[in-house]
Specification:
This protein has helices at residues 20-24, 34-46, 65-74, 89-99, 123-136, 154-163, 190-197, 201-207, 224-233, 274-292, 303-306, 315-320, and strands at residues 3-5, 51-55, 78-83, 107-112, 140-146, 168-173, 210-213, 247-248, 253-255, 266-267. Strands 7-6-5-4-3-2-1-8-9-10 form a ten-stranded mixed beta sheet, covered by helices on one side. Strand 2 (51-55), helix 3 and strand 3 (78-83) form a beta-alpha-beta unit. The protein has 340 residues and is α/β, with parallel strands linked by helices. Helix 4 (89-99) runs parallel beside helix 5. It has a single domain (3-334), classed as Alpha-Beta Barrel (TIM Barrel), CATH 3.20.20.70. The two termini are 21 Å apart. Helix content is 34%, strand content 13%. The protein is globular and about 55 Å long.
């Protein structure tokens, strides 16, 4: 499902941030316009997509966010807003008033939260998040990006119980941004991350909290007991994949995902619908996968990868390994420029 960036500015500077390159180069005026929003709404509907995923930066920094959400709701879209919950009291109170009667399946939030000890917030930021949750906790899913080996989920359990958040936690691995510097989980440490995650399972079972694993978790790093728990708690539908998500910037540029934000960047005006965009990036993904394999040597002979059950880990890890070599491989692997 495509993500639409309403702004590339942010109120935080997370060390693992996938969008850091965009945020660092953004200006206050770098926000989506009404003209572009209306074009995207038409483009989505023509493509048969009835849901808007709103990202940033921090989308609540857009001065007309509430009006734009109202417009999208009136056009029949379901909306999910990715936010850190840090917003002005005026905008928060306005949103609470406008959207109080909107069904949860029409408007929801994913709250990107950091562990207080390792990525501390100021007192004012922490209070702002609490105010956000007091209004919207019942329609919010917690999201947590893992970028350290000794991460702790206990604080999320407390937020879920205190504010009535969704009992599914969106868990993401911090991946490398090809050609940039950000904190991410090294390939050799993914198994340790998974084992650390499973130390919280007894509490998650007791509190009826389920995992929502984001992309990039390789199937081979889970043992049979761990896989059994994952499948039981995801209804057997979890996909160990890595595929184009499609991010759309305020200026209507598009790219396959944030870790590959400079990889074959294009303009949305080059395409007639979302399916054409997905097909374009999936074709490139397939070519690169043939050239580079998976993130482990064992991926070359893996039945799960041959059958498409697992894609072999995050593509950004693969490409990151070839950035400094002489360009002897297929040209698709080296197209890292702002013009595609």
């Amino acid at each position: 499902m495509p993500n639409v960036l309403f702004t590339q500015s942010c109120t935080r500077s997370c060390p693992y941030c996938f969008a850091k390159k965009h945020i660092d180069g953004s200006v206050p005026s770098d926000i989506i316009s009404w003209e572009n929003l209306i074009y995207l709404a038409d483009f989505f509907l023509i493509s048969g997509h009835k849901r808007f995923q709103i990202l940033g930066g921090e989308p609540t920094l857009h001065p007309e966010l509430n009006d734009m959400i109202t417009y999208l709701l009136e056009r029949g879209f379901g909306i999910n807003v990715f936010t850190n919950g840090i917003m002005s009291d005026k905008k928060l109170n306005e949103a609470a008033r406008i959207f109080k009667d909107i069904p949860n399946d029409k408007l929801s939030f994913t709250l990107n939260i950091n562990e207080p000890k390792s990525t501390p917030q100021s007192l004012s930021e922490a209070e702002s998040v609490k105010r956000f949750l007091s209004h919207f906790g019942y329609r919010t899913t917690p999201g947590f990006n893992i970028y350290k080996l000794d991460f702790d989920l206990t604080f999320i359990f407390q937020l879920i119980n205190e504010y009535g958040l969704s009992r599914t936690i969106r868990l993401g691995l911090a991946h490398p941004i090809a050609g940039k510097k950000n904190k991410f989980i090294q390939i050799k440490d993914i198994k340790r991350i998974i084992d650390r995650l499973f130390t919280f399972i007894p509490v998650m079972d007791r509190l009826r909290i389920k995992p929502g694993l984001d992309c990039g978790f390789p199937l081979c790093q889970f043992d049979d007991e761990q896989l059994g728990w994952i499948y039981r708690n995801t209804g057997g539908h979890y996909d160990f994949g890595c595929a184009p998500v499609i991010d759309i910037g305020p200026d209507m540029t598009i790219w396959p995902c944030f870790p590959l934000s400079d990889f074959h960047k294009k303009s949305i005006f080059d395409f007639n619908n979302i399916n054409e965009i997905v097909d374009f990036y999936e074709s490139i993904h397939r070519k690169v996968r043939i050239e580079t394999g998976g993130i482990y040597e064992e991926c070359d002979h893996c039945d799960y990868r041959e059958e498409g059950i697992c894609k072999g880990g995050c593509l950004a890890h693969n490409l990151n390994n070839f950035l400094d070599e002489h360009p002897i491989r297929m040209k698709e692997m080296y197209q890292y420029d702002s013009n595609g």
